[in-house]
Fold this protein.
Amino acid sequence: MRLAQHMAAASDKVSATAIEATEFPELSRTYRVMAVPKVVMNDRVQFEGALPEKEFLAAVLKAAGPAS
Amino acid sequence: MAILQERDRQAVRKEFERLTGPVKLVVFSQALAAADLCQQNEELVREVADLTDGRVAVEVLNLAIDRDRAEAYGVDQVPAIVVEGARDLGIRFYGIPSGYEFSNLIDSIILVSTGEPALSEETRASLETLAEPVDIKVFSTPT
């Protein structure tokens, strides 16, 4: 969540929501959360585990890009 | 009984020495949906705000009653916390922030207060080029 919230603070286009998976089983099922942390961006880009800043940014840019 | 232990309080109070601008924590609850969790969440937020000598305000809303506010914030789950600085930067917590997420809650309060994201210049420049909004969801569990 740390990188996500700092990116939200840096850009008006980015929003960040931390979700406690065990308290929201339906959301966790919807997004197929099998391991944590799991990150979902625009319901298009998703990955498990923590990424360094550069790779996290690449995922954000991909999520904002044209649909492939 | 207090949720935060004295050791945590001291550490958080020290972190909050970095606060500069105003912060508001908008808490969404709904007794019918998750009474215990919402109550614990409210209690935690109040305990955190109490460590700031009045520099962090708390507003508790009801998801079912304060629908317009919930919609404006894009909140549709409880318990939820909106971490707002001089303006809303889009930072939300769903569920009680504990363990690692508690650290992130404290970090987000300082972040919206100072308005200084800890990111490289390259990252900031790239984010300025974003054409479309990006909604990031981070699922975690208490550790």
Summary: The radius of gyration of chain A is 12 Å.
